[in-house]
Amino acid sequence: MTVTVVTGSASGIGAAIRDQLVQAGHRVIGIDRQNAEITADLSTADGRQAAVEAALRACEGRLDGLVCCAGLGPTASSSSLIVSVNYFGMTELVNGLTPALARGTAPAILLIGSVASVHPGMDKLPMVTAMLNDDEAGARSQADAMGATQAAYAGSKYAVTVFARRQAVVLGPRGIRINVLAPGAVDTPLLQASLADARYGEAVRNFVAPVGRNAAPAEIAGMACFLQSAQASFVHGTVVFVDGGMDAMTRSDRF
Ligand code: NAI
């Protein structure tokens, strides 16, 4: 049976991915702050290390899939927390579980990015440079100095996408695929928190995808399951937008 680790498996998109992978016959090892096979806090280095060790024990050192979904939105309590969970909570899981994936069958990694990652100027942010240099302390202090959680969110999603594309070159020869799925607005507790926020609510409400509605988590999970499946065996190092046309609407001449 295919064994897949899913972070953020207790809620929203991660829970929907978990359900569809189980329906497709995977054994899922969920990681989350609560209601998961492995309870861990991915915001700290110790929590991430404990999560990796518990996952390696649960899969007995051999893994076929990893889906990193755990993340915080712009309403999180600080920019540094967003950086730690959204970037290091994904990259350290990839790095820690790669040896087990290398022993798996047709192994595949999927990172959940965001349509927010294409906001202009992300590549110029000092916090992004620090993330890509694997400097968590530097990235956290740069993010807090900027003092804009929305920028920390978009920057973390841009950085994790660059990380994945760089890893594609390293992991491809080892037989491990890696891709990014970039959702638009999806009806989950994370989006509800943004809608209810005095700073962001109106902008989120006004930014409507061309299809005229938000996604249900299951619509994101369908693409995630495809990307993790044998049918996607030549899909590697790419970013798939599942956003109802948001990316096409904002930058139709760039792809
Ligand atoms: P959600 O809030 O429903 O689920 C996020 C999950 O991550 C929760 O179960 C939460 O406990 C877990 N998590 C958060 N911090 C954690 C920590 N320190 N340690 C362990 N687990 C932690 O949110 P949603 O919407 O399902 O988000 C999933 C992913 O999708 C996130 O990476 C988010 O950035 C991304 N996304 C969501 C969009 C949306 O409109 N909902 C749009 C684009 C991307």
From TrEMBL:
SUPFAM superfamilies reported in the protein's UniProt record: NAD(P)-binding Rossmann-fold domains
UniProt entry tagged with the keyword Oxidoreductase: yes
GO biological process: fatty acid beta-oxidation
Keywords (A to Z) from UniProt: Oxidoreductase
Lineage top rank: taxon: Bacteria
GO molecular function: 2,4-dienoyl-CoA reductase (NADPH) activity
Pfam families given in the database record: adh_short, adh_short_C2
Protein's recorded name: 3-alpha-hydroxysteroid dehydrogenase
